[in-house]
Write a structure and sequence with these properties.
Blueprint lengths: L1 H11 L17 H16 L4 H8 L3 H13 L3 E4 L4 E4 L1 H13 L2 H16 L2 E8 L2 E8 L14 E3 L4 H7 L4 H11 L12 H14 L2 E4 L6 E9 L5 E10 L8 H18 L13
Antiparallel strand pairs: 1-2, 3-4, 3-8, 4-5, 6-7, 7-8
Organism: Thalassococcus lentus
Protein name: IclR family transcriptional regulator
InterPro entries: GAF-like_dom_sf (IPR029016), HTH_MetabolicPath_Reg (IPR050707), TransRegBhcR (IPR054844), Tscrpt_reg_IclR_C (IPR014757), Tscrpt_reg_IclR_N (IPR005471), WH-like_DNA-bd_sf (IPR036388), WH_DNA-bd_sf (IPR036390)
């Protein structure tokens, strides 16, 4: 009887029903999928009227309204009656915070971020790769009046981000090509590396000097210096960076700033039990 009870407990502990294929369309709840599209679209827009949100989602306003009212009851979205805007609510933040607690990365990185900000005087950032983009996880802001700001949850293209290029530089050529094929190389400024060959050359330079540089490639007048963080398998799982006005990050100071950032990244790597590895070698 005890053996049977243990067997039943083990069965209940499974994460998925036996025999179900994860990618089958039949396993998805279509109404929930549409609701998630509404929530994700609202998050990207930062606030929206019902009609604008329905148009952006390509769904009837009546359907979107029912989704919003349901989410509002859970505190996941809020409604501001003045401007008639729907916005992300505190409940969404609370759910998201569980993701941050799932890993020790954010907690381990906070001291390094604070130290990096104090050493350089610039905003320090932590980001990870997510679906071919950079997801910013944590930040310690500079005390300067003019400063960079990437709130947690912000997504940024990898090819125009310091952290993104620090991570791309640790990927194989095939992996880099997959990211480029999926997301393209959108040009944000005249300095954006929108040509594949130019990007590949920059990634080779990143590997050789030990840090990545976003040289006004996403926003004019702003620079970013970044380095990768490695896990126990020697895989680049995150990146640290400092961001600030180009005038405060001049060319002659970049090598020293790069050393600060690389040292902070090594500190976090060691803190999570990681092991740096040699970056992929370019073909001869």
């Amino acid at each position: 009887m005890a053996e049977e009870s243990n067997k039943n407990t083990a069965t209940r502990a499974r994460g998925r029903p036996r025999g179900w294929a994860d990618n089958l369309e039949q396993n998805r709840i279509k109404s929930l999928d549409r609701a998630m599209e509404v929530l994700e679209t609202l998050g990207r827009r930062g606030g929206s009227t019902l009609s604008d949100l329905a148009e952006a989602c390509g769904q009837p306003a009546s359907s979107v309204y029912r989704v919003l009212v349901t989410l509002e009851a859970r505190g996941i979205v809020d409604f501001d009656p003045g401007p008639q805007l729907w916005e992300i609510g505190a409940g969404a933040f609370q759910i998201g915070s569980h993701f941050l607690r799932r890993t020790s990365l954010v907690e381990r990185a906070r001291p390094a971020l604070r130290s990096l900000m104090e050493q350089t005087g610039e905003t320090a950032n932590l980001g990870i790769a997510r679906d071919g983009q950079v997801l910013f996880m944590s930040q310690v802001e500079s005390h300067a009046n003019i400063r960079a700001f990437f709130p947690p949850g912000t997504l940024s293209p990898m090819h125009s981000s310091g952290i993104g290029k620090a991570l791309l530089a640790q990927m194989t050529d095939e992996q880099v090509q997959n990211v480029v094929s999926a997301h393209g190389l959108e040009r944000f400024t005249r300095f954006t590396l929108a040509n594949p060959a130019t990007l590949v050359a920059d990634l080779a330079l990143t590997r050789s000097r030990g840090y990545a540089l976003d040289n006004e490639e996403k926003n004019l007048g702003m620079r970013c210096v970044a380095a990768p963080i490695f896990d126990m398998h020697g895989e680049a799982v995150a990146g640290l960076s400092i961001s600030g006005p180009s005038a405060r990050l001049p060319d002659d100071q970049l090598p020293e700033l790069g050393r600060y950032v690389a040292a902070a990244a090594r500190e976090v790597t060691e803190g999570i039990g990681g092991q740096p590895r040699a970056a992929p070698q370019d073909p001869a």
